[in-house]
Amino acid sequence: RRLDDVRLDYLFLDGSHFRYHANAGAEPVLAAWGIDTDGKPVFVGLAAAAGESSDAWADFLTDLGERGLACPLLVISDGAAGLIAAVETTMTVALRQRCLIHRARNLLAKVSTNAQAEVKADYWAIFDVPENIEPGLDAVRHVQARIDAFAKRWRDSYPAAVRCLLDDRDSLTVYLRFPREHWTRTRHSNFI
Fold first, then answer.
1. I want to staple 53 with a disulfide (CB 3.0 to 4.6 A). Which of 7, 13, 82, 165 is the partner?
2. What is the predicted pLDDT for the residue at 56?
3. Beta strands 8-18 and 27-36: pairing type?
4. Alpha carbon of residue 141 to chain centroid
5. 59 and 77 in contact (C-beta within 8 Å)?
6. What pLDDT score does 158 carry?
């Protein structure tokens, strides 16, 4: 379908893997959905792919553009390298937010089971921004300082988890530049 009339503020991208046949390996389906300028959810597209390479994602995003989809303000996705590369080459003016839920899973996989509840609570506390701090650079600075505090607290016990948090850290705070009432929706790519 044509997408000329779809005007998105936020575009969510993710790949899900499905088995199409018994005894077959799971294959990815690339998915795009968004929130339009009126705040309404919009299904954008699905495509079966051989993988989640940058070429597969670039082809998918190029097809959406050729069907009339304009570049959104913000793209929200996980940290898959192929997806990030494709977004950076096909949607060059959009900002990119890394999914905080995916990042939490990545980080907690590097923490011992007995400490996961405490580390998880500390991780999510990073992103609590008091009401007196305005959206924008002040909110970003506040969260970046909390990332530093988390890193200082956990670097000796869980250095791999801290490296995971610090890797691509700037993409964890992009959503804070947008209206506060959008934050809970735009800080992750899990649509449901």
1. 82
2. 95
3. antiparallel
4. 19
5. no
6. 98
Residue 19: what pLDDT? 81
Alpha helices, DSSP H, located in the chain: 54-66, 81-90, 100-108, 116-126, 137-154, 159-166, 183-186
Burial of residue 185 (number of CB atoms within 10 Å: 0-12, 13-18, 19+): middle
Angle between helices 100-108 and 159-166 (to 10 degrees): 160
Q: Kindly list the averaged pLDDT for each block of 10 residues, start to end, along the chain of length 192.
A: 95 90 86 96 94 94 97 96 96 97 97 98 98 98 99 98 96 98 93 59
At residue 191's C-alpha, the angle toward residues 31 and 91, to 5°, is 50
Exposure b/e, 117-140, CB count within 10 A at least 16 = b = eebeeebeebbebeeeeebeeebb
Residues 64, 8 contacting (CB under 8 angstroms): no
Say what the pTM is: 0.92
Q: What is the CATH number of domain 8-97?
A: 3.30.420.10
What are 16's strand-pairing partners? 29
What pLDDT is recorded for position 17?
A: 85
State the Cα–Cα distance between residues 133 and 3, nearest whole angstrom.
37
42 close to 8: Cβ distance less than 8 angstroms: yes
